[in-house]
UniProtKB/TrEMBL annotation:
Its cofactor is Mg(2+). It comes from Cyphellophora attinorum. This is hydroxyethylthiazole kinase. Signal peptide: none annotated. It catalyses: 5-(2-hydroxyethyl)-4-methylthiazole + ATP = 4-methyl-5-(2-phosphooxyethyl)-thiazole + ADP + H(+). Transmembrane segments: none annotated.
């Protein structure tokens, strides 16, 4: 259940990373889709009263089936409607992963002073220690994995916390890069349910290392998109075939 702005790009990213997307916004078919054993992404980018009803129906269906649900509270700190939507969803069921930028994670936690401009965060005045504390506290409260994206990403499941500093500046220059990341994380968590934090880390590294590779091949945001899709596919193929052995060199991870 992703927003209408990014459906095509998110679907192509899913295909490039080996998953099989269906872009359904109809809560009435959520029960049938939940039986397929995948994961649900709830992306608030184009929230309306109708889509909110679909989100709640989908969340309940996937919770009942025991399947992962990822919340991407796009623009969550921008308007009172979006903040209310977040609270409605938090009361409606359980999330496996909550991902967003600093403003969005702060809106979920109810502790942010960052004002969002649309889906983007405004200037951050938080220290690294404050960001770490926020993701760890929210993960403990919601009993799920929390990912705060940015130049440095911060992740926690309440017990383990780490940062990742991979990625490309071009990701911030194209529409839907964060939304598509949510779909990749959801597919990884659907496959590796025993440790959602490890699955999230693996998805994030796949995504951001592919972006780094694509950056070396592109000339701007227009050429970055096809290069990125190619590198997502090629890196995934290398991993699957056991031909990728640079993870220790490429991954910039710090346990906190």
């Amino acid at each position: 259940m992703t927003n209408t702005v990014v459906q095509n790009f998110a679907a192509n990213v899913c295909l490039a990373t080996g998953s099989s997307p269906i872009m359904s916004m109809n809560g009435k078919e959520a029960g049938d889709l939940a039986k397929l054993g995948g994961a649900l992404v709830i992306n608030m980018g184009t929230v309306t009263s109708d889509t909110l009803d679909a989100y709640v129906a989908g969340m309940k269906a996937y919770n009942e089936a025991g399947n992962p649900v990822l919340l991407d509270p796009v623009g969550g700190g921008a308007t009172s409607l979006r903040r209310q939507t977040i609270q409605t969803l938090l009361r409606a069921g359980f999330f496996s992963v909550i991902k967003g930028n600093e403003g969005e994670i702060g809106a979920v936690a109810g502790t942010t002073d960052v004002q969002q401009r649309g889906v983007d965060s405004g200037p951050s005045f938080s220290t690294a220690a404050q960001k770490i504390a926020m993701v760890r506290s929210l993960a403990e409260t919601q009993r799920c994995v929390v990912l705060m994206t940015g130049a440095t990403d911060y992740l926690s499941d309440g017990d383990r916390t780490l940062s990742i500093s991979n990625g490309s500046h071009w990701l911030g220059r194209i529409t839907g890069s964060g939304c598509a990341l949510g779909s990749v994380i959801a597919s990884y968590v659907a496959l590796h349910r025993s440790d959602k934090l490890v699955a999230t880390v693996a998805a994030l590294l796949h995504y951001e290392i592919a972006a780094e590779r694509a950056e070396k091949l592109c000339h701007g945001p227009g050429s970055f998109i096809p290069a990125f899709l190619d590198q997502l596919y090629l890196l995934g193929t290398e991993i699957r075939d056991g031909k990728y052995d640079n993870i220790g060199y490429d991954a910039r991870i710090e346990w906190l």
